[in-house]
Specification:
By secondary structure, the protein is α+β, with helices and mostly antiparallel strands. Helix content is about 55%, strand content about 15%. Strands 1, 4, 6, 7, 8, 10, 12 and 13 form an 8-stranded antiparallel sheet that branches. Strands 5-11-9 form a 3-stranded antiparallel sheet, with no helix packed on it. Keywords: Coiled coil, Hydrolase, Metal-binding, Metalloprotease, Protease, Zinc.
Length: about 475
């Protein structure tokens, strides 16, 4: 009987969330088995011996045990698959949400920081303007005080000039008469006295004119000083308004800076929480990926051992045919014919008549930031589409995996010198049974979206000598 290899130790098959480009272990499920055909091939026997001797087929039920009830087993599997799929979808969504929340918080924090820095700059500028405005206000107030003092002094000077001019006018009025000269003459003054009196009169008139001129000049100066006072008052009023504006701006900006600082602190806290959540999810993803790599390595080691066994069996089979040919040639008295290698049924055919939606190759993980292998070729296949065997072979295993969903393995033996195994993933249900021999093109299952899958399709894989290769190399 061909053993079931991928299950390994059920206790080590933890729940793994991954996309459909990788295979992972999942919560263990009891796999249905059917009794193998009575006749066992040499290849199957060798695989069984190698697997048992390597100790990698732990917890495999006895081949002689009765198979479980299909209906009950299907119901159990459907329930477990549904729960596992929900858990995987939720975990994956949570990872995406955590990363998105962190990116959003980081972007918002950057905006808040810029806003906070701008507010700080505006506050510094406002404070500097406030200092300038205060200085201007102080100068304007001093200028106004000086101008007012000048006006008051001018007004006092006007009062004094006006009094002097009044006295001069009164004196002139009293002396400005034609009787002055007559008085001098009547007093019998000599001509010299008369001349002296006339000079005195002229001096009195000169004094009157000077007093009036000084009064006019003082009034003009007072008017100029009052104009300066008006200008100083206007300048001081503008300085007061400017100072009031800067004080108001400084007060408002101080409040804004405090609010921006508080917002920045709050956003920083949100960012920290989001970062920790994203980091936890990332670490979980990393741990799960490490488990995936370990599982893939384990499966490949089993398939490598199987490939060696199949090649050894093929070599023994060829040696047996060569021996038979030599014996036959001896009896017939002719040289023995050359026995070619068993071609193994030719190459592989497409498992579904459709187009490729995602090819085999390396992909960059957007969260973990490293390259990983998309280890198969994705074909468009609506749910329920029949999936056909790519070549004749024997069904070696079928089971559910958290990443690949329902999987079915078909060993095709040695083809063109290489041991070939094909794997069909995300099936909605199986048609072929474990241990059953299937022909090329025979329906072995139906397309689905089980496991971690975004939609119905077939993830088709090819193992060559136990290692994953590009399926298109063989199709």
């Amino acid at each position: 009987m061909v053993p079931h290899f991928p299950g390994a130790n059920p206790r080590e098959r933890g729940s793994i969330k991954r996309d459909d480009s990788t295979g992972t272990t999942a919560t263990p499920y009891q796999r249905s088995r059917s009794r193998p055909p009575g006749r066992q091939t040499v290849v199957a026997a060798c695989c069984l011996v190698l697997s048992l001797s390597a100790g990698v087929l732990a917890a495999v039920p006895s081949a002689q045990a009765d198979p479980p009830d299909p209906a009950a087993k299907k119901k159990q599997l459907d329930s477990q698959i549904g729960a596992q799929k929900a858990d995987l979808a939720e975990a994956s969504d949570q990872l995406g949400k955590s990363v998105a929340a962190y990116n959003q918080a980081e972007a918002k924090y950057t905006v808040v920081q810029v806003k906070y820095a701008a507010a700080q700059g505006q506050l510094a500028a406002a404070k500097a303007a406030d200092v300038v405005a205060a200085s201007k206000l102080q100068a304007a107030e001093q200028a106004l005080t000086s101008a007012v003092a000048d006006v008051e002094a001018g007004e006092q000077q006007i009062i004094e000039k006006r009094a002097l001019a009044g006295r001069a006018v009164r004196s002139a009025y009293q002396q400005q008469t034609g009787l002055v000269g007559l008085t001098i003459a009547l007093r019998g003054a000599s001509p010299a006295d008369i001349a002296t009196g006339m000079q005195v009169q002229r001096n009195v008139f000169g004094i009157q004119g000077n007093a009036i001129t000084n009064l006019n000049n003082a009034q003009a100066q007072l008017a100029n000083k009052r104009a300066k006072v008006a200008l100083a008052e206007k300048t001081a009023a503008a300085a007061r308004a400017e100072a009031a504006r800067t004080v108001k701006q400084v007060t408002a900006l101080t409040k804004q800076v405090a609010a921006d600082k508080a917002e920045a602190a709050a956003v920083a806290q949100v960012k920290l929480v989001a970062f920790k959540a994203a980091e936890r999810e990332k670490n979980t993803e990393q741990a799960q990926y490490n488990a995936l790599v370990a599982e893939r390595s384990r499966v490949e080691q089993i398939l490598i051992a199987r490939a060696k066994a199949e090649k050894a069996a093929a070599a023994r089979k060829k040696a047996a045919r060569e021996k038979a040919e030599r014996e036959k040639a001896r009896k017939e008295g002719r040289p023995p014919r050359n026995i070619p290698d068993d071609p193994g049924g030719g190459g592989l055919s497409y498992p579904v008549s459709s187009y490729i939606t995602s090819p085999y190759g390396m992909r960059f993980h957007p969260v973990l930031h490293y390259w990983k292998l998309h280890d198969g070729t994705d074909f468009r296949a609506p749910c329920g589409t029949p999936i056909r065997a790519a070549a004749s072979g024997r069904v070696t295993d079928k089971y559910y995996n958290g990443g690949y969903g329902n999987r079915l393995f078909v060993s095709h033996g040695v083809i063109d010198g290489s041991s070939i195994t094909t794997v069909y993933n995300h099936l909605s249900r199986y048609k072929a049974r474990v241990g059953e021999h299937v022909s090329k093109g025979e329906i072995i299952g139906y397309a689905g979206t089980t496991g971690y899958s975004t939609g119905c399709h077939l993830h088709f894989m090819v193992y060559q000598d136990g290692r994953v290769v590009n399926p298109m190399k063989w199709l």
